[in-house]
Design a protein that fits this description.
Its EC number is 2.1.1.107. This protein is an alpha/beta fold. It contains 8 helices and 10 strands. It has 2 domains: 8-121, Tetrapyrrole methylase, N-terminal domain (Cobalt-precorrin-4 Transmethylase, domain 1), CATH 3.40.1010.10; 124-258, Methyltransferase, Cobalt-precorrin-4 Transmethylase, Domain 2, CATH 3.30.950. The chain has helices at 24-31, 69-84, 101-109, 123-130, 159-164, 179-187, 217-223, 245-262, and strands at residues 8-13, 35-38, 55-58, 86-91, 114-118, 144-148, 169-173, 195-200, 208-213, 230-234. The structure holds S-adenosyl-L-homocysteine.
Amino acid sequence: MRNEVRPRVTLVGAGPGDPELITLKGVLALNKADVVLFDALIDRTLLNHAPEKALKVFVGKRHGSLKNPQEDTNRLCVRYAQEYGHVVRLKGGDPFVFGRGAEELDYIHQFGISTDVVPGISSTVAVPAAAGIPVTKRGVSESYWVITGTTSNGELSHDLKLASRSKATVVLLMGTKKLEEIVGIYEAQGLVDKPIAIIERGTTVEEKVVAGTMVDILDKARTQQVGAPAIIIIGEVVRESPKLRAVYEEVLCEHKLISLHNE
Ligand code: SAH
C-alpha cells in the first residue's frame, strides 16, 4: 500500500544567481523534496540538492506557451502536493520581493495545505554588493528604495519620481526597457551627474556591468548591449565601488580638461 501523502509546500528563495548563495535552510528543504517547481532564473545545479527521484518541473514563463502561467503554476503546486507530498517552490532571490510568492501562498492556503517560507538573498542587495556597490554607506546614502520598472499594468512605477527627489539609493528591477524614461526623470531635475549602473545576471559567470552617469548611460547600454535580467542602481553609492573607480575617475578627468580649456 502506498504511504499516506501529506501535502505541504515550501516556498524557497534560491538567492540572486550564484548557486552558492542559497541558504542552508533552502538546501535542507530541497534535500526533502518530492517535487521541485523552479523558475527561469534558477541555476539548474541547485536541483542536485533534491533527491534523484524527486520530480523537477520547469515553470518559467515561456512566451505564448501558456495562457496564464501564474495561474497554471499555482494549480500545479497544489496538484503535486496532493499527489506527491512535499513540493519545494524554488524562486529567484527572495520569494517576497517582486516574486509573487505571497500570491502563490494565498492560493495554496485555500486548499488547506500547510506552507513554509524560506527567505532568500535578494538580488536587490546582493547584485550591487557583488559589483562592489554598498546600497547604504555612512555619509553617502542613508536609505535605499527597491522599485519596479514594470508594474502590473506594465508601467514604470510612479514611486521613482518620489525617490529621485531624495538622496536615497534607488534599485530598479525589471527596468531595462524603460531606461530612457528613467534617465528622463533625473534629467528633468538637472541631476545629470547622478551615477547609474546596470548589472545584468549579477553574481553569475555571465555578469555584465555598465556604469556611467545620466549623460552617457543610454549610449553605453546600447553599445555594450546590456539587457534583461538586470538591476539598475542609481545614486552616489555607485561611485563607491572599487571595481568601478576607473569609470568615475575618467569622468572627473574629462571635467577637469573641459574646465582647463575654458580658463
Ligand atoms: N525575487 C527576486 C526578484 C524577482 S523579479 C529577488 O529577490 O531577487 C525579477 C527581476 O529581478 C529581474 O527582471 C531583474 O530585474 C532582477 N534580477 C534577479 N536576479 C538578477 C540577477 N542575478 N542580476 C540582475 N538582475 C536580477
